[in-house]
Amino acid sequence: MITYAALSPHPPIIVPYIGGERLKDCEQTVKGIKQMARELLATSPDTIVFLTPHGNVFADCISYLSDPVLEGDFSNFGSRVEGTSMSNDIALLAEIEKQARRSALNFIGLDRATAREHHLNPHLDHGILVPLHYLQEAGMGSIDIAAISIGYLSILELYTLGRLISGAAEQLGKKVAIVASGDMSHRLKDEGPYDYHPDGPRFDATVKELIAAGDAVSILNIPEDLRDNAGECGYRSIVIMLGALDGKAFKATVFSYEGPFGVGYLIAGFIPGKKNDSLLEKLQQIKKSEMEQNRREESLPVKWARRILEDYVKTGKLPELPLEMAELKEQKAGAFVSLKKNGQLRGCIGTIMPAYGDLSEEIAGNAVSAGTRDPRFAPVTENELNELVYSVDIMGEPEPCTLEDLDPCKYGVIVSRGNRRGLLLPDLEGVDTVDEQISIALQKAGISPGEKYSLERFEVTRYK
Q: How far apart are CA 274 and CA 251, in angstroms?
């Protein structure tokens, strides 16, 4: 069972032997985290599960540290104080992984050997070490821990993982507390880590208000652009934590909030109560309805690209072109097929000029390549198909141009030198200037900025 859940910030500066005199600038945070630690330990958990955004974070899975003993220190922050060593609850993590496999969630353990091989971190990070410091100070003793890193999965997948943590605790008969580690906005002041943005304080006020009201549904529905503009790092931890409380009424208490260094520090505690309606099934139904609506509204090229990849992944074969899509055989053009999952690129392959017999074959060939042969990604699996969002760009004829002829919103760009060639599609998120567009295209081509290169532009017709 889940005995307690907490939201905790993780600035190392609130650890006394790191922050020193600067602790006086965040007294409310120190007071709040001490109160949270006492309240959590009063529920006598067998294990404390930490959710951190500063561990080994991936786009397609959730990772956890799998060594029997977990160690960490603040040496990266200039501290020479001896680190900590904690016993890892391997049994709980194994049960979570078992349940995750049934739910088609990637929950991956990382030991020291694997971490070294892939240049990852096998140690406890500061997202865990900061709240752990105050739990130890409050008399935590030898309670086991588990260290789970958030991932850039969908909100539904993150919430589901939280429910699996709760389910694993119930299956093993363990009392488990959750610590969702995360700071709020990093854009509260110009002198903070990032420039000020008005959505910074807006995000923090929204989360604080909704937590105090115990409104989990509204927290899950906070718009993505508000979160992104705020520059937060705690939202995904909160979503997993709320999933662990799914099916229970809970009492939420905000212990403190302040933003003395341009970053919001919010501390809250959640005490589970009586059984309540589960949100998980409702979220799953909403997701299913949205997917069905999207498919009804898909354009013809996108509908064909999706059908091609789904059939190929499931059967290894390509379907026949349906009669209602016959118009795709009447055109020849280069085409790019792009796949996204949870807002992140999952594959993109295309042809600048026609390389197949007609447009239907062009889309088909590039859809298969985008899903299974993009060297940046592992091949798409059948479990992922329902999560993919497709777009198809039909290429116009490239034409020579100068820098002054470019507009990153309207034109794609091709840079060439000898047999080296780099292409960037137009109207891409995060590419707002010609300089950014050219720089990325040169990197893709392996052309250094000092080398001479030829320049072409092209237009596309984008289907979503």
A: 10
Any idea what DSSP says for residue 98?
A: H
Report yes or no: 177 and 3 within 8 Å, Cβ to Cβ.
yes
Does residue 141 sit within a domain?
A: yes
Q: What is the mean pLDDT of the chain?
A: 93
Q: What is the pLDDT of residue 449?
A: 83
Which element (helix H / strand E) includes 291? helix 280-296
Tell whether 31 and 60 lie within a shared domain: yes
Residues 34 and 152 in one domain: yes
Q: Are residues 440 and 381 in the same domain?
A: no
pLDDT tens-digit map of 124-149: 999 999 999 999 999 999 999 999 99
Judge whether 234 and 184 are in contact, CB under 8 Å. Answer: yes
Amino acid 464: pLDDT: 84
Domain that holds residue 362: 298-394
CA atoms within 13 A on the CB side of 398: 22
- Asked if residue 351 and residue 248 are part of one domain, the reply reads no
Tell me the C-alpha distance between 350 and 396, whole Å: 13
DSSP 387: G
Does 453 fall in a domain?
yes
**Cα–Cα distance between 398 and 417 in angstroms, integer?**
16
* 25-73 residue pLDDT tens: 999 999 999 999 999 999 999 999 999 999 999 988 999 999 999 999 9
Residues 93 and 117 in one domain: yes
Helices (H) and strands (E) in the chain, counts: 14, 18
Is position 288 within any domain? no
Query: What one-character DSSP code corresponds to residue 88?
Result: B
Give the chain's end-to-end CA distance (angstroms, integer).
44
234 neighbors 7 (Cβ within 8 angstroms): yes
Cross-strand bridge partners of residue 292:
none
Who's near 56: CB < 8 A, 6+ residues apart?
A: 63, 110, 115, 120, 121, 149
320-364 pLDDT tens trace = 999 999 999 999 999 999 999 877 889 999 998 899 999 999 999
Q: Compute the distance between CA of residue 420 and CA of residue 437 in angstroms, rounded to an integer.
A: 17
Task: Provide the pLDDT for residue 43.
Answer: 97
- Asked whether residue 264 falls in the same domain as residue 335, the answer is no
292 Cβ neighbours under 8 A, 6+ residues apart: none
Q: Are residues 314 and 420 in the same domain?
A: no
Q: Judge whether 290 lies within some domain.
A: no
Note the pLDDT tens digit of each residue in 308-332.
999 999 999 999 999 999 999 999 9
CATH number at residue 454: 3.30.1490.150
- For residue 361, what is the enclosing H or E element? helix 359-372
